[in-house]
UniProtKB/TrEMBL annotation:
<protein>
    <submittedName>
        <fullName>Precorrin-6A synthase (Deacetylating)</fullName>
    </submittedName>
</protein>
<dbReference type="Pfam" id="PF00590">
    <property type="entry name" value="TP_methylase"/>
</dbReference>
<dbReference type="GO" id="GO:0009236">
    <property type="term" value="P:cobalamin biosynthetic process"/>
</dbReference>
<keyword id="KW-0169">Cobalamin biosynthesis</keyword>
<dbReference type="InterPro" id="IPR014776">
    <property type="entry name" value="4pyrrole_Mease_sub2"/>
</dbReference>
<keyword id="KW-0808">Transferase</keyword>
<feature type="domain" description="Tetrapyrrole methylase">
    <location>
        <begin position="4"/>
        <end position="223"/>
    </location>
</feature>
<dbReference type="InterPro" id="IPR000878">
    <property type="entry name" value="4pyrrol_Mease"/>
</dbReference>
<keyword id="KW-0489">Methyltransferase</keyword>
<comment type="pathway">
    <text>Cofactor biosynthesis; adenosylcobalamin biosynthesis.</text>
</comment>
<dbReference type="InterPro" id="IPR035996">
    <property type="entry name" value="4pyrrol_Methylase_sf"/>
</dbReference>
<dbReference type="GO" id="GO:0032259">
    <property type="term" value="P:methylation"/>
</dbReference>
<dbReference type="InterPro" id="IPR014777">
    <property type="entry name" value="4pyrrole_Mease_sub1"/>
</dbReference>
<dbReference type="InterPro" id="IPR012797">
    <property type="entry name" value="CobF"/>
</dbReference>
<keyword id="KW-0949">S-adenosyl-L-methionine</keyword>
<dbReference type="GO" id="GO:0043819">
    <property type="term" value="F:precorrin-6A synthase (deacetylating) activity"/>
</dbReference>
Length: 254
């Protein structure tokens, strides 16, 4: 039986780590690092910084690295592309977990929180279903949504109203019914432009919690092009971008 820790490391700032996460880091013997390419070296560097900062002096550990598979873009069948990606990731996980020695505890460092827009838990369940004997524990982390609202100094929800978390692809299908606040993640196509005629405020953030952090807020109709231009420039400069935003009817709160 292999013991695995799934540790949420927060949304960019090493200070976001919880006490529980720090304790979990010091239980692990092996850390699995998935390399997303040269453009995202900063994500790997942050994980290394966290290990150096929080693991107790004298405690030995090792790193096992592998290339993280990329999803095929601009395909007709989105769901099929996700299924293919998760199969590829499962094969990588199985290869990494196969290197864990008897008596060692392995750990995956998950950006944000493992329960929000992250595939690690689903993939590990697939590994278990495939016959590998392992137990895993989940340590929650501060999500990108929490970090975004904190940096903009706004509540996530309006009083007595629902919040929906969705993707840019879903937003392009139209504003969700029955909600006044929508958090949008995984939007590569500036999908807020599809609802620019709605009476909305937007609270946008990129690289939140990192030295590269960018924040823009205001009436959507007034700042949409500023966000699009800023986002494109940041992606060009860094080679990648990680952003999210909250759209809201009726201002800051009910």
């Amino acid at each position: 039986m292999k013991d695995i820790l799934i540790i949420g490391i927060g949304a960019g700032d090493p200070d976001y780590l919880t006490t529980q996460a720090i304790k979990a880091l010091n239980r692990a013997d092996v850390f699995f690092i998935l390399d997303k390419g040269e453009a995202k070296d900063k994500l790997i560097a942050l994980r290394r910084l966290i290990l150096e900062r929080y693991i107790e002096p004298g405690r030995c550990y090792r790193l096992l690295e592998a290339t993280n598979p990329e999803r095929e873009r601009n395909v007709v069948d989105y769901d099929a592309s996700i299924d293919s990606l998760n199969r590829d990731k499962q094969a990588v996980f199985e290869q990494l977990l196969g290197q864990l020695q008897d008596g060692e505890t392995g750990a995956f460092l998950v950006w944000g929180d493992p329960a929000l827009y992250d595939s690690t838990l689903r993939i590990l369940d697939g590994v278990i279903a495939g016959g590998m004997a392992l137990e895993y524990e989940v340590i929650p982390g501060i999500t990108s949504v929490q970090a975004l609202t904190a940096r903009h100094r706004i509540p996530l929800n309006q009083i007595g109203r629902a919040v929906q978390i969705t993707t840019g692809r879903r937003l392009r299908e139209g504003w969700p019914e029955g909600v006044d606040s929508v958090v949008v993640m995984l939007d590569a196509q500036d999908s807020y432009r599809q609802v620019i005629d709605e009476d909305l405020n937007i609270y946008w953030g990129a690289y939140v919690g990192t030295p590269d952090e960018i924040l823009i807020s205001g009436r959507l109709a007034e700042v949409a092009e500023q966000i699009a231009t800023t986002r494109a420039a940041a992606r060009q400069a860094n080679g990648w971008i990680m952003d999210s935003y909250l759209l809201r009817r009726g201002g800051r709160e009910a």
